[in-house]
Amino acid sequence: MMKIKNAIYLLFAVLVMVGCDNGSGSQKYSTDLINNPNTASGDTSKKQVPEITFDKKMHDFGRLSQGESIAYSFKFTNTGNADLVISNCDATCGCTVADFPKNRIKPGETGYITVSFNSAGKYGQEEQMIEVMANTQPSRTQLIVRALVEN
Fold it and tell me: What is the pTM of this model?
């Protein structure tokens, strides 16, 4: 009985050692798309840093009929001094979808994030948030769309 118990402990120890990866594996992750400008001191004044500046961060669609779909394009500019890369846009609800540029935005260039809202199954005042994730500081920017959905 003792030999079986010791064998189980030994097997468990081997599984733990094999299952724990200390990061020394051969898998490499590419960082050439995202440039994180953080420094230990927090001083980014001398760094190449992209900055996303929106003309406006909130849009009110006004009154909509239930079931109506509508879209708005938020205009932005890269006001930083490095290429801007938007990695994702997440909405708070499946009724809202954001389409964003997948290419690099050079300093001084503009682009658009188009937000589509579908009012099917909605009623009353609606407010949806879209979180834009990019290689900026801070890395997340929030956009908002509103609508009053009527029958």
Answer: 0.70
